[in-house]
What does this fold into?
Amino acid sequence: MSAPNSDYDPVEVTPLHPDEIARVVREALDAVAGAVTLAELKQVRLDHAGDRSPLALANREIGALPPQARKEAGQRVGQARGEVNRAIAERTAALEVAEKAARLAAETVDVTLPVDREPVGARHPITTIQETVADIFVAMGWEVAEGPEVEAEWLNFDALNLGPDHPARTMQDTFWIKSGESASQESGMVLRTHTSPVQARTMLTRTPPIYVVCPGRVYRTDEADATHMPVFHQVEGLAIDRGLSMAHLKGTLDHFARAIYGAGMTTRFRPSYFPFTEPSAEVDLLCYVCHNDPGAVAGCRTCGGEGWVEWGGCGVVNPRVLVACGVDPEEFSGFAFGMGLDRTITSRYDIADLRDLWDGDIRFTEPFGVGL
Ligand code: DAH
It folds into this structure.
């Protein structure tokens, strides 16, 4: 093995030459100063301070030097590497501060700016009144019942004492559901003409006492015009218990009317006929505009000078209906009522055209409030 070359001059090893080292350092410092992001600086570190950087290569040359030359060369390279590493550390700190400041600036939220108001619409008055009605009865301990809009003919008519030949069947112009391909064949199914079949469904599936209300959509073959629609809304009520009478019915409807129209409201009954109730009555509301006030009633447009406006039908449940629905009329009796909700809204808010309820125009629903 040959001895180290004692005459070896480190200055002649190019990578260790002071000028070369100074050049490499300058290049590194320029690159560090030129890095404007931390990502760029990372690459600069690899190029100028990494394992394959000129200074690392120079460092490796030191081992090949004669011992007496190593110290000086080592110091030179060490200082150079220290200088480059310090510059990188300083630049890193500066860029970290700058990048954080930039991120914070970008994420700044001006809480004083006005909010971007998207119109959110409003609840439809039909929805609102259905929920109001349900709430009024639920507060008295009643339950909300539901039934399908495509209903069995038997439940819509027969169970309610409207037999096949009953003249009252023609009172309600029915949409029949076709069966299969044949247009003429009826399926025994109808679009329910009233919410009363929910009465039958409820009695058939529950045992008394029963107290239910049922708001829902109903259908009749009416042409759509300002005062008629082939689809409209009703709310049905049914109470079955021991000892219920017409008096309980009157008290319930008076409470219902006051809950909607205020404390001064009252109802009146006029004798009427429905196959499913006996006795039956039409129920009127005291006119909520003129209050049947002698000074105002004559010219009142809402009630047409009557002092009362029609609200719905009601009565004591016909024992035949109880029997058809499996309730013992010797033990139980009950009352029922049904009223239209669409007219309640149009007359209450002076809406001239029933079709406005169906147009889906949010300019119509918005004044009813309760933005979502
Ligand atoms: N179902 C009737 C109709 O649509 C309204 C009605 C009348 C319902 C009397 C009732 C009632 O529950 O007892 O015209």
Observations:
- The pocket of 3,4-dihydroxyphenylalanine is lined by residues 194, 196, 236, 274, 276-277, 313-315, 336-338 (CB under 6 Å).
- Strands lie at 143-144, 150-152, 176-178, 186-191, 210-219, 231-241, 267-274, 277-286, 308-317, 333-340.
